[in-house]
């Protein structure tokens, strides 16, 4: 079995030397366990946090440990009555070609129901993140304006489309003209803006003539700066991610803008509420069937960026943090 372990903690951008590829003997599954072959590995922005030992909501990957990650795998051997060889399961096998996992932690997938990769994206953790953060904290009303960045990614694209399903106006922000075209043509956003455009703040103001009622925060940084003056009274801000800052080693220089933020929160009676999807996992039971239905009805589209081979995982992960991915980033580890 081949695996990629954390070799050292990155300072700033993760580099190839922070990872190491190893070959190890396969273990036989113990009672209650199954030996799995990884088909697909999910790459997600949170993995940057796990590479660091800074305080976080989850413990870091230790040096020498296999990089963590959600996986879709095929059962090779099982010592649990619930699983048989050939079953396909959603698990947390990490960056490796094979894994031994506890059967109780695995969810069986039906390959006939939806493409297997969707269990890592639109019908998986990122989809549930989008739905729960938007519906529980954002709570868009018909006619309101919802703004989201990283909007071609699995979280942002799902946020924008659910906002529209709920009758709100969706404004998407993404990096570069190609992604902006995807927002309009593939995902059906009401307006789409490039955060790299020199007049980004002006474009955002023009695209939000009635202000912003819900800002689903995925990125932070310059996007948040442009959003802040557009926020309406009683606007809601689910704080989901801050990917613009994940590689930062220090606070940026400049004036202290905290008083500006706090005075906006006070004057506009803003709700700013962070969340980790694990808090809302119970909503998967309502979200997954609803999303499958929306996909069947053509109301919810998704986009996947499938990279072939575990040996390309590091490069693909580096690209995720700078926007090189086109949709949900997945590594095809073995051919089906
Ligand atoms: P994406 O596939 O959207 O990938 C991240 C995207 O972030 C990039 O493609 C890029 O898009 C964008 N980005 C990177 N740097 C910047 C920047 N400086 N300014 C603006 N945009 C930038 O990832 P996901 O959909 O999986 O995740 C989106 C967010 O949700 C992340 O912040 C992630 O950490 C968070 N998240 C939080 C969870 C929770 O439980 N709270 C659970 C899951 C995800 P572009 O090219 O368009 O700029």
From TrEMBL:
All copies of domain Enoyl reductase (ER), residue ranges: 12-331
InterPro entries: ADH-like_C (IPR013149), ADH_N_2 (IPR041694), ER (IPR020843), GroES-like_sf (IPR011032), MDR_fam (IPR045010), NAD(P)-bd_dom_sf (IPR036291)
Keyword Phosphoprotein: no
GO molecular function: oxidoreductase activity, acting on the CH-CH group of donors, NAD or NADP as acceptor
The keyword Oxidoreductase is assigned to this record: yes
Transmembrane regions listed in the UniProt entry: none
Entry keyword set: Oxidoreductase
A Pfam family per the record: ADH_zinc_N
Top-level taxon of the source organism: Bacteria
SMART domains: PKS_ER
Protein name: NADP-dependent oxidoreductase
